[in-house]
């Protein structure tokens, strides 16, 4: 598994807009490019940090080469409009060596089965 970490400063008052566009964009990138999904975090300094998982670096690089384009200009426009600052490249790219995370969706499915 391959992981890419991104960060964004978001204009004050546009946090909900950013999160909605990030969620929709992530859904589209997952469907179009084969991402395994992503998590969005809020850092103590106020930045949003996204941690995206990919099956491998090659799949991620293909998506990067395509600029992770998707055919929803309104989603892309809302995302870009909300961003005050962000680097062009990911903060980090990582290859997973050991993975002991419990998957959020898997845990939720198990909890539902116990009810």
UniProtKB/TrEMBL annotation:
Any Pfam family matching the protein: ABM
InterPro entries on file: ABM_dom (IPR007138), Dimeric_a/b-barrel (IPR011008)
Organism domain of life: Bacteria
Domain ABM: 1-65
Organism phylogeny: Bacteria, Pseudomonadati, Pseudomonadota, Alphaproteobacteria, Sphingomonadales
The protein's name: ABM domain-containing protein
């Amino acid at each position: 598994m391959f992981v890419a970490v991104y960060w964004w400063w978001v204009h004050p008052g546009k946090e909900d807009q950013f999160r909605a566009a990030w969620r929709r964009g992530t859904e589209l990138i997952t469907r179009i490019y084969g991402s395994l999904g992503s998590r969005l975090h809020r850092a103590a300094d106020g930045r949003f940090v996204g941690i995206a998982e990919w099956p491998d670096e090659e799949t991620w690089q293909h998506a990067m080469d395509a600029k992770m384009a998707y055919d929803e200009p309104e989603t892309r426009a809302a995302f870009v409009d909300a961003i005050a600052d962000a680097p062009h490249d990911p903060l980090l790219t990582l290859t997973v060596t050991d993975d002991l995370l419990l998957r959020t969706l898997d845990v939720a499915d198990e909890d539902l089965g116990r009810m």
